[in-house]
Amino acid sequence: MRLAGWTMLFAVAGCKGIPPQPTPVPTPADTSAETGEPVEVIDEWYLYLPPTELADNGRFATSEACEHCHSNHETSTAMRDESGNGVAPFDLWRASMMANAARDPIWRAVVSVEIAATPAAADIIGERCMTCHAPMAATDAELTGEPKPVYPTGLTEGTPRANLGLDGVSCTLCHQIEDTNLGSPDSWKGNYIIEAQQRAYGPHPNPNTEYMLEEGWTALESTHTDSADLCATCHMLITNALEPDGTPNGGFLVEQSPYLEMKNSTNAGSSCQACHFPKRGPDQSNIITQAARPEEGGDYPDLPTRTLGRHEMVGGNTLVPQMFRDHNEVLNPAAPPEAFDTKIIRARQQLQSATAVISIEQPQLNGTQLSFTTYADPLTGHKFPTGIPLRRAWIRTRVYDAANNLVFASGEFDSTGRILDSSGNVQPFELAGGPEAPHQDSISSPDQVQIYEAVMMNQAGEPTYRLLRGAGYIKDNRLLPRGWSLNNADLELIAPSGVDGDPDYTTEGDRVSWQVDTTGYTGPYLIEATLLYQTLGNRWAEEILAVETPETLALKIMLDTSDRRPEIIAMITAFGG
Asked: Per-domain residue ranges for the chain?
């Protein structure tokens, strides 16, 4: 059966976090002084979702059914790396953005904003967003010929199907996807094929079928589970632009394209799993172990050892894990708070080791003019940042004189991650309805900032922050991966925008030239360049929060108690003059 749908967010990212504070469950209402009528009290508890309860209908099962054998146990040696670290799939998955796709408070806020912007299409928006964020519920309904669940009722109605939805992108979803049409556009936009025959595909040869058959599942080998083609089913997303009345206007947006970006890089022959399901432990130790253990503990005597991929699914998101950690009783993920601390550490390690580096080239002083070039060099197999366009990166530069006086600074930010101008004020492009930050090839003013981001435009060519108004990008200067080619057959779908005249955007990386006036200062000058990353750019946050839905009001409370400062990706210093 073919499944169609859109994804709004998959993950939608440094973070010290705030210790969780006990919050009382709100009373249903206060009383309006003007009318005497009850009014709803909105706080973070509006985003409450119940814990997932076990559901198993013979087509899909929640992860609790898999936990019994695919989690670590104190009496088992299975699913541990050679250093003894636990690498059980369930334990690592449960704090991932995939596991919590249906609980993600940013996703829920964005969906509510899209529905508010296009109320005539509310049901179809809610249905299509659930296809990839609550895929077991959506797929189960289609397989049985019933109406697909919509947001938010499909998560809150307390049925077995709602529990399938609450379990996010779970075990019996991904491991049941058939190797049919994968890698072709027919499989994108949530068009994975599941026949619900309780076939559990995995990459390991000659699987032992006995133990899974006792649970009603047949273990089968298929290398497609280690292929980027599988991930592309939800992470290649093209949406149709809608008018306010819900009618398509002919425009479309390539909302997510990491798959095609990777295919146009030196990583074209690799897979998403190589980075996001690493086959070494966190200390780089080997992972050669049994893939399951008996429910009561101990080890199976006859299971072969395998090289397991760690199901951490780590990207660059350090913001949403904070919210799951600090509002654990509201969002009710399967993972305990401390698991999200580990997730934040892993994401930070990934950002600092596998995303990008920055260098300073040719610093020189001519009279009072200090000049230098920064080069941001991507390490990812796709654009950086990639995925949904609410993510961004930028360069912060500082120049100090011989007495350690600050001569120049660009890209400074405040305690909430908002980019500041030379007077310490929030830049206008950080505010809802403000101007857009232009792409920069040469910078001489502290108020200029090089921000790597994708800014959508509507069918009229105007900037927009509504995904279903998106009909292209007015700016897409995200860093291109190594090996980028202008001869790629799909280049039209993934080409940069708003960078005309900058030769860097025909190949990987980006160079920016800097000119700093040092009048009144004495060298030598210390130049510092830092590459920063933010999962939820402040402009996107402001545009979301400007629409007051219950979800955005609750999200704001969570954001106000989160550390939204950007993560440091890389930093370099050099002397000039």
From this structure: 29-350, 351-489+497-576
